[in-house]
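ugh ok fine here u go
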Amino acid sequence: MPEGHSVHRIARQFGVNFVGSRPEVTSPQGRFAQGAALLSGREMLDARAVGKQMFLEFEGDHWLRVHLGIYGAWDFSGEVRIDPSIQIHGQTPGHSRLGQNGENSRPGGPVDRDAEDSVTSIGAPRRTRVRMAESDKESDAVESFPPDPVGQVRVRLLTDAVCADLRGPTACEVLTPAEVDAVVLRLGPDPANANTPAERARFVERAGKKKTPIGLVLMDQAVVAGIGNVYRAEMLFRAELNPHTPANALDRTVLEALWDDWAELLEVGITVGQMITIDGLEGEAYERALVDRDERHWVYKLEGTPCKRCGANIILEEFGARKLYWCPGCQH
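structure:
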């Protein structure tokens, strides 16, 4: 499932490519035809992310809410402008001619094996999207614009220059401003939107009341927005916290440090496009981290291998119906 940094990157792409325009909105798949008709031709006024959810504001008090879930993904094509605050493969591009799924004109540089590092195609892993698609051929990428819909496209937003296709979301609906407010109020704070003492205190208050293990609390979107399985495992390792420790047993300063670390890691993820959780990587080590997931994480998906810090074998266990990776040597 895409974590918070990916959704913020998507929102920023909508900000530079669609906000201020009046896109044609359609539902090639047909499942969102009514909502698409309501939005089509209206000016897009804003694009924002809160945790794992994105909200696109259209004139007339209409909002499009999208939650990608496990299988959802956005693909951008056309004359895509790249938000200057984000990178592709560790580099900062400005403008690219991109075909469906961003193929053929992808900027140079190392490409992550899981297709995590991208601003042209963000969401479920590439192999999942290929399985979902009817065809996904590079030769078709930039022959015409707009490209023919590939696979089950729930929503297509189209301007004269840019096309954005959504496939496989968990949620895709048109909301009123009051309904958007209700959704956001159910979510915990998101430091990418407001990394303030007040928001940190809100996280500490919500987490500090929980008797459940901190390893579950960090995944609770009502406590803090955006953290998923990868960031959860890596943050707990970085803090040297046993995932099973009850959240209400932790000192306030420990919870404050977790918030500060989340804010830092989230900003790195938004900027670079990858969840790099090992600090101080430079030169060849940084290049390897861009390409190889195992080179940028401490414990995630490294079960059975020696901890890079203490040498103890990394543990994998089922925890709250999700896989948890942690080091019994460092996180005792």
